[in-house]
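[09:14] KT: can someone run the structure on this one? pasting the chain below
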Amino acid sequence: MANESDSGAASGAAGTAQAIRLRRNGGPEVLELAQVEVGEPGPGEARVRNHAIGVNFIDVYFRTGLYPQPLPGGLGQEGAGVVEAVGPGVEHVKPGDRVAYAARPNGAYSTLRVMPAEVLVRLPDDIGFEEGAAMLLQGLTVQYLFRQTYELKAGDTVLFHAAAGGVGLIACQWARALGVNLIGTVGSNDKAALARQHGAAHVINYNTEDVVQRVLEITDGARVPVVYDSVGKDTFARSLDCLRPRGLMVSFGNSSGAVPPFSLSELTGRGSLYITRPTLDSYAFDRASLEAMAADLFGMVSSGRIDIEINQRFALADAAEAHRALEARRTTGKTILLP
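[09:31] RB: done, structure tokens below
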């Protein structure tokens, strides 16, 4: 079996890899570039040579320790590359296949790794490695948010925070394709323009405008049936205030920090609200679900209805700089690492 603490190393070395190692929790400075041995895949595993690696805010959560993992360990859940070898029992991918993945265990910040084959999906011929590494985690997130957590239909009006981020720009385009009026929040005029360009029907600059008041104005006082919130602490209360009675609060991240404990009476007093804290693992929980969700996403991209915006590229060795940019909210669209 692969030893995840060695970023996919296994017995019977097949080569070495460069990998970002995490030996303690902390700031970006704890990310170290190291040489690791990578062995042969065991039962149910595959060895993948990464051509591009996705950077996501969940990586920050693991780095800081908000999401605990055994240390020392690897980092990163998203990548795209080529299968070099497969272990016994692996039939859905083979050596030479172009693949992408977005799932635990951590270890994507590496040039080569051994990993569970069950999370790999084959990339269509018209989708490149950079695009594949940039789209899967965030694209599958939008897929389950819009198609499953709350199934959107044409004419719906929804609120989506961080609309100019990686998830947000995919969400803006997907909403436009569905005929949904997406109200996006952003932190600058430049980000507002970007969100509009990608399909947001309305944009609110939370640094210069009152989010709740603007939502009331846009919806003629009706508020929205669902709020998608990946920001967390800074936006949680305002998100609840934007919901109509029996509306759904979808809290799927906490880039500003974890939501503090709150009383369930907060939901009662605002009109019997619902709340959920979904994760990709709970939706793509088996091969059939993962394949169906990936096919939906790939179809949206291949048809041109969604364009994957890669606005930041860093060398693997500069992963710490990528994290600094992400945490400072200096990024738009997707950030990737190149081995």
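[09:33] KT: thanks! The radius of gyration is 20 Å.
[09:34] RB: yep, looked fine to me
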